[in-house]
UniProtKB/TrEMBL annotation:
Species of provenance: marine sediment metagenome
Similarity section: Belongs to the N(4)/N(6)-methyltransferase family.
Molecular function GO labels: DNA binding; N-methyltransferase activity; site-specific DNA-methyltransferase (adenine-specific) activity
Full protein name: DNA methylase N-4/N-6 domain-containing protein
Domain DNA methylase N-4/N-6 positions: 54-183
Pfam family membership, one: N6_N4_Mtase
Any Gene Ontology CC annotation: cytoplasm
Entry's transmembrane regions: none
Amino acid sequence: MITVDTVTRGDSFKLLETMDDKSVDLIITDPPYNFDFAKRFTLQNHFERICKGCILVFSPPENPWIFPADQYLFWVKPISTKNTSKKYSRFVEMVFVYGNGYWNPNRHWSQYTNIFNDLVEEKDHPYKKPSSLIERLILNHSKPGHIILDPFVGSGTTCVIAKALKRSYIGIEINEEFYNLSMKRLGEYGFYTI
């Protein structure tokens, strides 16, 4: 059973089926990149059914989502020396923006481009996104009291920032190690009692 302000350990595909239509205000997620067409199609349909606002999906440019996005954002990642594949390194990740949900009227939109270069603070998860980038996306696309869904929680960054910004969150994570990490982080910030 999925509840607000909780990370549920389980399979996102099965748990999303149980959620009510238009029950969340914003989705920010970084799903595994190895999903095939059928899985991406299923996820995107779930997202559109349960979200009444914007849907923000991180993905590499070579792995686009099924339906054309309304907007495209680009995160220019820090340079890594790990590339030994004799290919050009990919230092850009895209955020596919779906829907015309809430846009914060108090933000100075002229200051924002669709290119971000935020740095990841600490790497306790191999695919962690910068807290400052997640914070900016939450502030731009939601208001206090809104419910934010991350069905692939990882280290819990989206949940921690949502709660710190007076939003509620719903998190789902299938991997036990990452589930425990997200619960630990939420506990460290006082958003969950371990």
